[in-house]
From TrEMBL:
Pfam families given in the database record: Aminotran_1_2
Lineage: Eukaryota, Viridiplantae, Streptophyta, Embryophyta, Tracheophyta
InterPro entries: Aminotransferase_I/II_large, Asp_trans, NHTrfase_class1_PyrdxlP-BS, PyrdxlP-dep_Trfase, PyrdxlP-dep_Trfase_major, PyrdxlP-dep_Trfase_small
Organism: Dovyalis caffra
Identification of the protein by name: Aspartate aminotransferase
GO molecular function: L-aspartate:2-oxoglutarate aminotransferase activity; pyridoxal phosphate binding
């Protein structure tokens, strides 16, 4: 008899479990709109040309070895990642007030940042938006933080509940941590305007809240890396402190390379260097040091002007294709006379549309149309193509009529 016989089966992950169910479905018309992974017009995963080029450069460089990276990762990668988000002329970088450590994509960056906060920050409560990416509460709870939510999405307008957000930040205890999606909020596709960001910034600073930015989609919201970095840059420009988790999964298509970074912007260079020494103590017993390949790809692209420019063009093409899918789906529903206001499909930003479909309607679409998505009605627009839009529109039409 196994000493583990009391172990009960755990539930599938609510997002990755969608793919598990999809893979089991033999239907030729099946469509996976669950996981947020980019697909081409042909429905295929995409490796960016610029990534192939960078990998070729790495392969041809015989001086490269497979030694361990430092605990904090590849130094070039860290510098370039901070520059990508904070801007080339960021005073915080010039004053050495930023520490950046390479982590295991966005998830690992969030986890290391949260472990650091749980150990060294005076407030253990983190406020996350309602709703948010399903992994957030688990990552933060297991890191030792206590998770609360703030109002974010208004189902009635399918837009931002701005007053609710302000009220909840206003009544949060001073010093509380607030998780902010840097752009392209997941799952809602709803972002504050620049004017609203400025109001959020003022409130966060006046209450001494600690902003923790999660940036999983830089460049995917507007197609411009700089425009999508603007909210974070506003918070850096005021001289205050913050944390930032960056992922290259989506914007460089490096999903499986698990490459990302955690930055902590501090008040002084001296504090930043002591903070970094403690980040090393968080990382070393967890996984010793991060993998080398993804960091080398990103660094090769970010440090070469031509490769960087090529990346921005490919990134914009991905963002544009997603936006065109929004218009195609919206038009297809209009052509079918599907009841309801579907304008949120073209108003929402980034990889996802938060359709407003309820779990029953989602289950119906999966059963009758073999369309897979999370039960909250979120669909990954990046998984759609001109060929599959009509099938999705038929399914939505049937689900709501
Ligand atoms: N944050 C958000 C909001 C996300 O949507 C994702 C990816 N789904 C992540 C973080 C982390 O992804 P990864 O660990 O693959 O970089």
């Amino acid at each position: 008899n196994s000493v583990f016989s009391h172990v009960v089966r755990g539930p599938e992950d609510p997002i990755l479990g969608v793919t598990v169910a999809y893979n089991k479905d033999p239907s030729p018309v099946k469509l996976n709109l669950g996981v947020g992974a980019y697909r081409t017009e042909e429905g295929k995963p995409l490796v960016l040309n610029v990534v192939r080029k960078a990998e070729q450069l790495l392969v041809n460089d015989r001086s490269r070895v497979k030694e361990y990276l430092p605990i904090t990762g590849l130094a070039d990668f860290n510098k370039l990642s901070a520059k990508l988000m904070f801007g080339a002329n960021s005073p915080a970088i010039q004053e050495n007030r930023v520490t950046t450590v390479q982590c295991l994509s966005g998830t690992g960056s969030l986890r290391v940042g949260a472990e650091f906060l749980a150990k060294h920050y005076h407030q253990r409560t983190i406020y996350i938006p309602q709703p948010t990416w399903g992994n957030h509460p688990k990552v933060f709870t297991l890191a030792g933080l206590s998770v609360k939510t703030y109002r974010y999405y208004d189902p009635a307008t399918r837009g931002l509940n701005f007053q609710g957000l302000l009220d909840d930040f206003g009544s949060a205890p001073s010093g509380a941590i607030v998780l902010l999606h840097a752009c392209a909020h997941n799952p809602t596709g709803v972002d504050p305007t620049v004017k609203q960001w400025e109001q959020i910034r003022q409130l966060v600073r006046s209450k001494g809240l600690m902003p923790f930015f999660d940036s999983a989609y830089q460049g995917f919201a507007s197609g411009s890396l700089d425009a999508d970095a603007q909210p974070v840059r506003m918070f850096v420009a005021d001289g205050g402190e913050l944390l930032l988790a960056q992922s290259y999964a989506k914007n460089m298509g490096l999903y499986g390379e698990r490459i990302g970074a955690l930055s902590i912007v501090c008040k002084t260079a001296d504090v930043a260097s002591r903070v970094e020494s403690q980040l090393k103590l968080v990382i070393r017993p967890m996984y010793s040091n991060p993998p080398i390949h993804g960091a080398s790809i990103v660094a090769a692209i970010l440090k070469d002007r031509d490769l960087y420019n090529e990346w921005t063009i490919e990134l914009k093409a991905m963002a544009d294709r997603i936006i065109s899918m929004r218009h195609k789906l919206f038009e297809a529903l209009r052509a079918r006379g599907t009841p309801g206001d579907w304008s949120h499909i073209i108003k929402q930003i980034g990889m996802f549309t938060f359709t407003g479909l309820n779990p029953k309607q989602v289950a119906f679409m999966t059963k009758e149309y073999h369309i897979y998505m999370t039960s909250d009605g979120r669909i990954s627009m990046a998984g759609l193509s001109s060929k599959t839009v009509p099938h999705l529109a038929d399914a939505i039409h049937a689900a709501v009529t």
